[in-house]
Specification:
mainly alpha
Length: about 70
């Protein structure tokens, strides 16, 4: 289900407070490519899917650790 994967990626990207542009920069791709994936117009390769997951997980973890340090 392409649209569902794209919606999930968008949801996690927003949770990570990351723009499409920043995610694209981390992944060495274009903002348009990220947008197409999120809309279900393109399906990421398995390597890209793992890279997206890693980038978003790292960003969410950084935000979590940052909040703990400020507490």
């Amino acid at each position: 289900k392409r649209p569902q994967i794209g919606k999930n990626i968008k949801s996690y990207r927003i949770r990570a407070k990351m723009t499409q542009q920043k995610l694209a920069l981390i992944l060495a791709t274009t903002q348009g490519h990220i947008g197409q994936i999120e809309r279900g117009g393109r399906y990421p390769s398995i390597d890209m899917l793992f890279a997206i997951a890693e980038a978003l997980a790292d960003q969410i973890e950084e935000r979590r650790v940052g909040k703990e340090c400020r507490s």
